[in-house]
Amino acid sequence: MNKKSFSTNKVATRQGYGEGLVIAGEADEKVVVLCADLTESTRSILFKEKFPDRFIEIGVAEQALATIAAGMATYGKIPFISSYAAFSPGRNWEQIRTTIALNDVPVKIAGAHAGLTVGPDGATHQMLEDIALMRAMPNMVVMYPADAIEARKATVAAAKNGKPTYIRLAREKTPIITTEKTPFEIGKSHVLLNPSTRSADAQGRLEQSRKATSSGPHGDPQVAIIGAGPLLYEAVVAAKKLAESGIETVVINSHTIKPIDEQTIIKYAKITGAVVTVEEHQINGGLGGAVAEVLARNFPVPQEFVGMPDSFGESGDPDELLEKYHMKSADIIAAVKKVITRKNS
Amino acid sequence: MTRKLTNQELKEKANLIRLDIIKMLVEAGSGHSAGPLGMADIFTAFYFNLLKHDPKNPQWEERDRLILSNGHITPVRYVAMAHAGYFPISELKTLRKLGSRLQGHPERKRLPGVETTSGPLGSGLAQASGYAYAARMDGQKFRVYCICSDGEHDSGNHWEAVLFAGKNKLSNLTAIVDRNNIQIDGYTEEVMPLEPLRAKYEAFNWHVLHIDGHNLEEIIDAVNHAKAVFEKPTVIIAHTIPGKGVDYMENDPKWHGAVPGVSDMPGEPSKEKQTQIALHELRTLKGKIKSEHE
Ligand SMILES: Cc1ncc(C[n+]2csc(CCOP(=O)(O)OP(=O)(O)O)c2C)c(N)n1
Ligand SMILES: [Mg+2]
Question: Does residue B198 sit at the A interface (CB-CB below 8 Å)?
Fold first, then answer.
């Protein structure tokens, strides 16, 4: 696979969060940051250095982290609480539910080191259920940025949305796949890759291969790949490779998982008639589930799910683990082919 | 059952364990250094003197239960277990690798002899309390030990268990606190002051002992003393030096979650150099780690 055709610049989404905190802090002095003994690795340190008086150390106490922030938000502050997703919202879920969501106060929960790719730390630290936990919760906004640039924008946007908000972040440095100019609006997904926007050059090559494979008409995409988070890079890699063999797809970045962008999902389900969802999270209850709920109610089409197959993770190198648990571009390609077969049968 | 080692043998064993901790962490390329090195003497005392256990039969019903709450220091437990004969020492080099039984944080279902899964902090003492309570209901004679860290004392779950065990006079439970004064964001007394820790436990109806966690005699005496306290659970506050034995690691929170060569501080010696210095220092100690009073 020729990965060189994409940006090779890699930055962790947690870094984008830290940068976003500083911007949000400059824009609004009500923004405060609370952290549970993970100031450096959640990149909250960037805010702490800039605004030491608005940074609060809570210690290893995630239940207090959520509830102290709830108190501050009820008073009128805009607290961001930083920890690892396994512990916040993993450990303090009920506190978040009652004191943040039911109170409907604007606490921003940043779950860093989410997903399988925390690697060697193993299953205890590989949070793969947080999207399910958070998207089931009324009033909660759930965001899962694709790269560091988007994480920065999501953080800045969260400071202004007035709602309980969860932002899912990763530890590993991952490819930058959006640009500063890419539009970002909470609740509005973004089409990352679309056959109609392909360069003339690439279109020419595509026509060639289409003649060879007699694939779908008019260059219309045959499958909508809907993903969130850094795995979208794998989705883009898969889509480009599929295009080379004459299978057109559209890749949609559903960075907001709640409220999910129903319109875009329905629109592309109608165009393609088949969907593959991609996420570094349990298949049960994740983004795939959210998409399936929209489809079932509005426009049912066959769907395949790329994600964690109802299993805990384990220690290992991040890439090895993604391979073992079938979340790499090759697995997305297989899912696309499978869903096309289902659609056509 | 394994033979109880003598004091001098224990010191030498503790040093071998420290050497293997460094080797396995360097091989793994990630993990925690400070906690495991600081607790090497205590784990040596447990696995080679104090515990009633059978490495060849990890599920032996009468064994004492050693519950590790601060799972990130599991390398010291793995090394002690390997040296005690639970599994081959060569397996240590699989730490944190795909398919290993030696997970980055310990998992009960993967490695026989690991009593519970841990890593997320603050929930070990509650599990140990539940275990001790259940065992007492059935008149079991074994003891339940819970090793936990000072950083965990920030957590409500830990103090909820302190209340429960105090209320229920769980005298079959002994907690050992790794009082090394560091956590991730810095020194415990700056992040979230814990002192006076003794008075806190006493107020919650615990029997409290203070020891030098690098003095093997004191460790053994204290744990044996706790067996003779019938009205209360006992907590042994073990004063330890994080990174003990490797000069550049001692007492520096930076080494909480770093291994030689992986810290990206500018001007650091290379990985090989850091490893070499660590191993050299440990070798030249030749089993003579000194406690503060020796
Ligand atoms: C519930 C929970 N929150 C946060 C963490 C991340 N974490 C791992 S170790 C640690 C520091 C705790 O201090 P201590 O156990 O005293 O560390 P040590 O002395 O071994 O350096 C933290 C915050 C965790 N493992 N579990
Ligand atoms: Mg400590």
Answer: no
**At A307, is the pLDDT very low, low, confident or very high (cuts 50, 70, 90)?**
very high
Q: Which pLDDT band holds residue B283 (cuts at 50, 70, 90)?
A: confident
Final residue before a domain boundary, out of A143, A175, A207: A175
Q: In angstroms, how far is the first alpha carbon of chain A from the final one?
A: 30
* B281 confidence band (pLDDT: 50, 70, 90): confident
Same domain? A17 vs A160: yes
Q: Which ligand is nearest to the CA of B35?
A: 1
Q: Are residues A112 and A211 in the same domain?
A: no
Omega before B269 cis (within 30°)? Answer: no
A252 and A132 share one domain: no
Question: For B7-283, CATH number?
Answer: 3.40.50.970
CA dihedral B53, B57, B63, B69 (to 10 degrees): 80
Whole-angstrom distance, CA of residue A216 vs CA of residue A343: 12
Supply the pTM of this predicted model: 0.94
Q: Write the burial class of residue B56 (CB in 10 Å: 0-12 exposed, 13-18 middle, 19+ buried).
A: exposed
For A319, which residue in chain B has the nearest alpha carbon? B98
The answer to whether position A328 is within a domain reads: yes
Nearest CB partner across the interface for B30, out of A38, A61, A120:
A120
Q: Any idea what the CATH number is for the domain that residue A106 is in?
A: 3.40.50.970
CA–CA separation, A256 vs A276, rounded Å?
Answer: 17
Does residue B122 have its Cβ closer than 6 Å to ligand 1? yes
Instruction: Assign residue A243 the CATH number of its domain.
Output: 3.40.50.920
Contact B154 A125 (CB under 8 A): no
The predicted pLDDT at position A4 comes to 43
Count: domains in chain A = 2
Which structural domain range is residue A290 located in?
190-344
